[in-house]
Amino acid sequence: MHLASLSALFTTVLLIFLSLSEAALPGTWPTLDQAPPMKPEWAKLVDLKKLPKAPVQTAQAADCSKAVEFCIWSCNTCIRNASDVVACPNNKEWGISYDDGPSPYTPALLDFLKSTNTKVTFAVIGSRVVERPEILQRIKDEGHEIVIHTWSHPSLTTVSTQQIIAELKWTELAIQTAVGLTPKFMRPPLGDIDDRVRSIITQLGYKILLWDRDTFDWKSGSDPSYQPSWITGNFTQWVTDSKGHISLEHDLYPVGAANAPAAVNIVRNAGYTIKPVSVCTGLQPYVENVQLVASGPAPPNATDGTDGTANATSTNNTSSYNSSSNSPSSHYLSSHALLIVLIISMAIFNL
């Protein structure tokens, strides 16, 4: 085969694979999953003189010697009631939340939520929004709440004030560009927060979303001993009381997404009403005048959700994420897809 023909064929194959990747958000954006740059106009949004003198932590381990003074969540799950939302205040109300998407597994989860008339909260990564804006649009259109979860998922007590501002504002801008909404809630990655970080966040106008029930499903991406049954087992225990709760799950990993339907049904069957966090707290979800609603009754033909294996199916067959809760991937194509392109190209040129 002529070299020019081989080259043309290879180009065609490459373009086909590129066309299969998710559509990226239009505009110019910082490098995905890296600390984003600070826009000069954002600096004036935070009065540095008002910041508590909590030391910037190291990435290796938190210094908890001043955990009480600066209310360091990572040390003692300390909260400040004025800024931190931890649980739904009313009995028998549950805020189910999913972090770190939108991912290839989110659409299948959305299918289930739609089939059961369930409304939840998604805390989204700015870099993921740029990768998959059409999934975020669906989240909005189907009545779920969108919460800021930073641009690159750093532990906020370990980074500078300038980076925290940039992480939040770039994510806010991506969400605004994708769906035209400005969230009033943010969730700190890993719940890592202290009074310095709180002051920055509240000066930027956000409420802080934490949780009181953690499935630890993020361990499924890195801990081989993690058992998926722990997720439903936890929910089965948690629903035995009547208090309001906010639970943490992740739509980033297949295990979390696969077990999410069963968890929803456990909560519903225990008599809880599942609500977006802003609905159960009575707070505004967005700067814009948008009102969300609670979950309604599941229709008679709703998906059962007790077997979530189908929900673990990726919409593009391969996940482009690293198996670490701290480092969601920034690739538009998965490494598997790129490998296939490479193999095809080698085969072509060996003809």
TrEMBL record:
Give residue spans, biased composition: Low complexity: 301-328
* GO cellular component, as recorded: membrane
Region Disordered: start-end pairs = 297-328
List each copy of the NodB homology domain by range.
92-275
List GO BP terms, alphabetically: carbohydrate metabolic process; fungal-type cell wall biogenesis
Keyword set for this entry? Hydrolase, Metal-binding, Signal
Q: Which InterPro entries match?
A: Glyco_hydro/deAcase_b/a-brl (IPR011330), NODB_dom (IPR002509), Polysacc_deacetylase_ArnD (IPR050248)
Sample GO molecular function, one term? chitin deacetylase activity
Signal sequence, renumbered to the chain: 1-23
Q: Which Pfam families would you find in this protein's record?
A: Polysacc_deac_1
Task: Name it.
Answer: 11828_t:CDS:1
Q: Which organism is it from?
A: Paraglomus brasilianum
Phylogenetic classification of the source organism: Eukaryota, Fungi, Fungi incertae sedis, Mucoromycota, Glomeromycotina
